[in-house]
Design goal:
By secondary structure, this protein is mainly alpha-helical. The chain has one domain. The chain contains 11 helices and 6 strands. Helix 6 crosses helix 8 and helix 7 crosses helix 8. 24% of the residues are buried. One zinc ion binds next to loops.
């Protein structure tokens, strides 16, 4: 029916006339009738050509997608390739900060700070480092979860056009991984991995602890940074060499450390807060866009959109961290833990997340 609606009335009439070709009686008539007949034939020809390339599903978006298909292909391949470079960059930059801290900062803290401050820096610094390394490693190495991995019958809501496979609720196709991902959040080039049902917690915890670590470094090293900055400025004011090579190296390392950690802290704070807001609402990054569109569409027709995966602020966080009892807030959130999330990521029935009644 939609095919007919898209044809103009004249084109539809001509098409119907094509189906009932009449004997040609007008050929021997006058010149005017001849011209009219030729026009009619020309229209038949055009309609025939149009019917050969007509597609009821074609619209401007499909046309644009087709035009930009090579660009998408290039971006996907570059992102896949750059993922390895980005992961190496994260490891390299984090290692450089650690070398500076262990070589310059910690010895200075131990030799000049009072005992309680030394204890605090040693305990907090190492706990934060452990949490960053653990969650980054797990976020990279843990598969986000794919429907094809599941052996059980898959309760699908649609079919993926790329995988030709049932797609459960909250599952989306990643064009970079070229697979469907359960509860897909986004493809992260800094992990060279998709963020989905099985590694979403690792990704968020990494962002959170990395932000905390960067803020901790930039706040703790502020005095050393100011001293180093003033010293570097004096290099150019006095012709006499005032500092040894090690001292100059210390100054430059402190400036590098502070600039790097404070810039990453600013960028990551924004990203972490954005993801925290999404988790509070029970949404993924992909669903945020879909839900906004849906809310706007329903608002126009006087209805209110309700996110079916929003179970309440605290409950959303409890589900996200896989907390079954109160002590898990400590052992599953503030200590390294490789526990699996609730459910298989195929169905989102609330009974999956129900609190253990025997838990304290
Ligand atoms: Zn797919
Ligand atoms: Zn991906």
């Amino acid at each position: 029916m939609s095919r007919w609606r898209r044809l103009s009335p004249t084109a539809a009439r001509l098409f119907l006339r094509c189906l009932h070709l009449r004997p040609c009686s007008a050929w021997g008539g006058r010149g005017g009738r001849m011209t009219g007949r030729l026009k009619e034939l020309w229209s038949y020809g055009r309609l025939l050509l149009k019917s050969l390339c007509f597609n009821a599903l074609c619209n401007f978006d499909v046309f644009l997608d087709s035009i930009f298909e090579p660009v998408y292909w290039l971006v996907d391949h570059l992102t896949r390739w750059f993922g390895v470079v980005f992961v190496c960059l994260v490891i390299l930059l984090t290692s450089s900060v650690l070398v500076i801290v262990y070589y310059f900062v910690l010895p200075l803290i131990i030799s000049t700070y009072p005992a309680h401050w030394v204890t605090w820096h040693l305990c907090y610094g190492h706990w934060n480092l452990l949490m960053i390394v653990f969650h980054y490693y797990k976020a990279i190495r843990t598969s986000p979860g794919h429907p094809l991995q599941m052996k059980t019958d898959i309760p699908s809501v649609s079919i993926c056009k790329k995988c030709i496979f049932p797609k459960p609720a909250r599952t989306h196709h990643c064009s970079i991984c070229n697979r469907c991902v359960l509860k897909m959040d986004h493809h992260c080039p800094w992990l060279n991995n998709c963020v989905g049902h099985l590694n979403h917690r690792y990704f968020f915890s990494f962002c959170l602890f990395m932000t905390m670590g960067c803020i901790y470094c930039s706040v703790s090293c502020w005095d050393m940074f100011v001293g180093a900055y003033n010293a570097v400025e004096s290099y150019y004011q006095t012709p006499e060499p005032l500092f040894t090579f090690t001292e100059k190296l210390f100054h430059k390392c402190m400036i590098y450390l502070w600039v790097l950690t404070s810039s990453v802290a600013v960028a990551l704070t924004g990203l972490t807060l954005w993801h925290a807001a999404l988790i509070t609402r029970g949404e993924t990054s992909v669903e945020r866009h879909i839900n906004r569109k849906e809310a706007r569409r329903l608002r126009d027709s006087g209805k209110v959109f309700r996110n079916p995966y929003n179970y309440g602020k605290v409950e959303n966080w409890r589900i996200f961290f896989g907390v079954k009892k109160r002590s898990h807030w400590l052992t599953h959130v503030l200590l390294p833990s490789d526990h699996a999330p609730f459910g298989e990521g195929l169905t989102w029935d609330r009974s999956v997340y129900r609190r253990d009644p025997t838990a304290i």
